[in-house]
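Data deposition worksheet. Section B asks for the primary sequence of the deposited chain exactly as it was used as input, without tags or linkers unless they were present during the calculation. Section C holds the resulting structure in token form. Section D is free text for depositor observations; keep each observation to a single sentence. Incomplete worksheets are returned to the depositor.
Section A, Depositor: J.P.
Section B:
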Amino acid sequence: MPEYLEVDHRAMKGRFARAPKLTDVPYPVTMEPNLVVEFYSR
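Section C:
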């Protein structure tokens, strides 16, 4: 379970404890947000 999530299994509830950082998201490649913004700004 990622540390940015809090889960109550008994109540079947979950919530974000904080917004995930870019390093918290397990993608197999290094993300570069500036390239995404550049691509969609065209």
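Section D:
The two ends are 37 Å apart (CA to CA).
Residues 9 and 15 are 12 Å apart (CA to CA).
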